[in-house]
Amino acid sequence: MIVDAPVIQIQEVVMDRIDIQLQDETGNWRTYSVTQNNDLLINSAMEALKFQFPNRRVRAVNQRGMLINIL
What we know:
Helix content is 20%, strand content 32%. It has one helix at 39-52, and strands at residues 17-23, 29-36, 58-61, 67-70. The longest helix has 14 residues, at 39-52. The termini are far apart.
């Protein structure tokens, strides 16, 4: 008797890229850097950009446009 083995599917894990953006003087969001979806990397990239432009808003958004964090 032959028994079919269960099919095992392996899902590929895709790391979302995170865009670190700065709001310019006209209100538009401009991407200044791209990082991996890692809390420490996101926060350090945002803090570095905020340090360069202290009077501007900084945000992190994923590939789908969802807001991750804003300073």
